[in-house]
Amino acid sequence: METKDLIVIGGGINGAGIAADAAGRGLSVLMLEAQDLACATSSASSKLIHGGLRYLEHYEFRLVSEALAEREVLLKMAPHIAFPMRFRLPHRPHLRPAWMIRIGLFMYDHLGKRTSLPGSTGLRFGANSVLKPEIKRGFEYSDCWVDDARLVLANAQMVVRKGGEVLTRTRATSARRENGLWIVEAEDIDTGKKYSWQARGLVNATGPWVKQFFDDGMHLPSPYGIRLIKGSHIVVPRVHTQKQAYILQNEDKRIVFVIPWMDEFSIIGTTDVEYKGDPKAVKIEESEINYLLKVYNAHFKKTA
Prior knowledge:
By secondary structure, this protein is of the alpha+beta class. The chain has helices spanning 13-24, 61-77, 98-111, 148-161, 210-218, 286-297, and strands at 3-9, 29-32, 48-49, 82-90, 121-124, 137-146, 165-167, 170-178, 181-188, 194-204, 228-230, 233-237, 245-249, 255-261, 265-269, 273-275. It has two domains: 3-43 and 150-218, FAD/NAD(P)-binding domain (3-Layer(bba) Sandwich), CATH 3.50.50.60; 83-144 and 228-297, D-Amino Acid Oxidase, Chain A, domain 2 (2-Layer Sandwich). The strands form three sheets. Strands 3, 4, 5, 6, 12, 13, 14 and 15 form an eight-stranded mixed sheet that branches. A six-stranded mixed sheet has the order 7-2-1-10-9-8. Strands 11-16 form a two-stranded antiparallel ribbon. Helix 1 packs parallel to helix 4 (148-161). The chain starts with a strand and ends in a 7-residue tail after the last helix. The model has no long low-confidence stretch (mean pLDDT 96). It is an enzyme of class 1 (oxidoreductase).
């Protein structure tokens, strides 16, 4: 039985990123994906590489600083799939005062090692603004857009370039500890061919299936109280011709992005709803669609 230093189960961005990092450090790595790479959450994201501006409100300064530093790294490493994008934040005084937003954006500009992106600035919206007339002021800052699925593929390709293996459509069926090693068994979902390996380390990066694999594949209790959160988007015909994205404040203190996509569309999202069903059956609910449209329509002249 072949022995690997590390087996990573799951071919989304977390699995691919971990596998690429390990392979780059000289470890023998195998990554298993039950379907196709980036087939689930990692190709249905907001497609943003951002530091998490809203986390400053919860004092997550270290998290934001680390995320901003990694944003700069990705911009330099993958300029073919990651692009700078300016975000406009309309000011609604009854939600957050302007001084609070200014402080947050100042920190956002300076917590990370920003070398390639312009800083934040204040805005005044005139008569030709796409926003409703009562929204007269706002702010603009920098973050990044990324082709999420291609980012996963790029990491998987790096695994192979560094001598690792990537097997898609190969479902890990079990993982158990034996004599100080992990014994991992898998099955080709097309041919039924079965595989087994030994590994010194194992990473469960199965995304929304992480608890299911603990329960059914590893027969171990999940070490954390894992619950699934559904963040849904809607894709609509392009709602404005500007190249900037918008970050909208809502009455419930959440934010919603309006992001230009593929020249002809806008992505509006996300929601934040606990989900208790089968991840394979996940879909947006009508209440989520109405929520996103309500937030959008509260800001823009052109309804969606």
